[in-house]
Every structure is written in C-alpha cells, then in structure tokens.
Amino acid sequence: MSAPKLPPLREVIAKHGLSASKALGQNFLFDEQLLDRIAAVPGSLEGEQVYEVGPGPGGLTRALLRAGANVTAVERDRRCLPALAELAEAYPDQLRVIEGDAMKIDPASEIGAPFHIASNLPYNVGTALAVGWLGGESWPPQWKSLTLMFQREVADRIVAKPGTDAYGRLAILAQWRCDARIAMPVHRSAFTPPPKVMSAVVHLTPKAQPEGVRMATLEALTAAAFGQRRKMLRQSLKGLPNALEALEKVAIAADRRPETLDLPEWINLAGTLDTLR
Ligand code: SAM
Fold it and tell me: Of 157, 165, 164, 97, whose CA–CA distance to 126 is shortest?
C-alpha cells in the first residue's frame, strides 16, 4: 500500500500554531529520510505494535506508520492533538493517540500485546522514562525493543564501558538487562529548534536471561558507590549493611573505585550481598 499524501510537517506546525515549548522539551524533526532511518532501527515494523512518547506534530509517528506499525502515542501537549487526529484519519485503525503524561502511563496496560517503544524523547523526562522501562524486579519486560533519542551525553552513559567517565549506574542498569548500542548520532541541526547539544539514537533489546540478582540490591550498591565515585569502595560502601563483607567474599579489593568494576563484578557483588541478608 502506498503512503497517503500528507502536508509537509512545517505546514502542519504553522496551521496548528505549534511553536516549540522549551518546558515540554520540544525539538522537532522534519527530515523524512532521517525519520525513516530511525523507524528502521528496530527492524521490520510491519504489523508490529509500537508505543511512542511525545509524537508532537507527528514526524516520527509518520515514519512508524509508513513502516506499517500500529502506533499508540502519548502526547502531553494538547495543541498537537488536532494534527495527530488528521494523521490518524490518513492511516485508519493504525494510530491511537492518548493525551497525557507518559510518566504516569504504563504502556503494557494500554497495549494488549508485545510492543516496541520508539521515541524522540523529551529531554526533561527521557532518562527517568528509560530507567522506568529498564527497572522493576520483573523481567523480561513486555516491550521487545527500545529505540530512543537522547542527548549524546546520556546515550554515551547508557553504552559506557568500565574505566570511562561516562560509566555509572545507567550503564550498569542498561547493560545488565539489555544489549545496548548507539544506532546513530544525530546532529543538533536536524532539530527545529536546534538544541544546544548533539543527540544520538540508542537501541536496546532485552537480554533473555539476566543474571539472578535482585534489582533493588544492584541499585542500592551502585547508588552508594557512584554517589561518591571518586572514593574507594571501602569508604563509599561502608554505610550499606554487609557490603564490605560481600566485597571481601568476592575478593574485590576495597581500595578500588567504582568505575573500575565491570558488569560481572557488580553482578557477583550484588548476588553475594543478597546471600548475606
Ligand atoms: N516526536 C516529535 C519529533 O520527533 O519531532 C517530537 C519530539 S519532542 C523532542 C518531545 C515531545 O514530547 C513533544 O511533543 C512534547 O510535547 C512531548 N512531551 C513532553 N513531555 C511529555 C510527557 N511527560 N508525556 C508525553 N509527552 C511529552
């Protein structure tokens, strides 16, 4: 089926008076080729369910619909709803728009089947949303993949390796549960208005069998350690019950700093800490 003819996005913005709101993290994408490349990151979306946060005037939404996805989109800015209603009309039965705050919505309860998540995230809530999707004790999740645009600095923190400045809680959480990669860098000039910083699309797919460690324990450990990342573990972990004993048990030297521990070491430490409780 050929894609329906739609007015250019810039016309849609002008028609509906969608001046970008900084408070809502609005930086819009208009380049159709770039949007199609982002929509291609999760693989074929033909007949797949996709959850999109912040469709705005609908640039990425159009690309997802062109790719054959059934999209459920959550938008907080009600000024965007008429433009999105026009898009829903052009793609009958393929687009459902929910007016609301994505921070308060559980996509699994909105979409009754496994789904992908794709979003050019509002920067002010992007990290919190991603941590919410990655966190929680229950695993695997109901989503099949995350394709998310972040500020480059956040993207780097998600894929960071030990021994780097970017390595910390976010890298450990993301890489414990997912295979994570930067799918493409995106230049700031691709956005209207251009943000101050560069961006990147990150692709995350859940790992089938994350190691048997409690999420809350790993969180508590990495929060204590990276909360004082310049300090040695002996210092930063001393307030966490049994943590120094766990360090000794797994033979991790107490004078190491948190960024030197790789993922298997964190997993081992958290698992051992659980056995001591
Ligand atoms: N998807 C569009 C694009 O790529 O051009 C717009 C992306 S813009 C970076 C982020 C969008 O998220 C805006 O439309 C904004 O109104 C919306 N937004 C901001 N906070 C939100 C929230 N808490 N829940 C849902 N949408 C939100």
Answer: 157
CB 95 within 8 A of CB 84: yes
Find the domain containing 220 and state its range: 215-275
Q: Are residues 193 and 237 in the same domain?
A: no
Global pTM value: 0.96
Look at residue 167 and tell me if it is in a domain. Answer: yes
What is the phi/psi pair of residue 7, to 5°?
A: -70, 150
* Pocket around ligand 1 at a 6 A CB cut-off: 24-29, 53-56, 59-60, 74-77, 80, 101-103, 120, 122, 125
- Given a cut of 90, whether residue 238 has pLDDT beyond it is yes
Ligand 1, atom 10, lies closest to the CA of: 122
Residue 162 forms part of a structural domain: yes
How many Å lie between the centroid of ligand 1 and the Cα of residue 121?
6
Q: How far is the CA of 25 from the centre of ligand 1 (A)?
A: 6
Indicate whether 51 belongs to any domain: yes
In a domain, 129, yes or no: yes
Atom of ligand 1 nearest to the CA of 28: 5
What is d(CA 35, CA 73) in angstroms, rounded to the nearest whole number?
16
Domain termination site, one of 186, 206, 226: 206
Q: How does the average pLDDT of the chain come out, rounded? A: 95
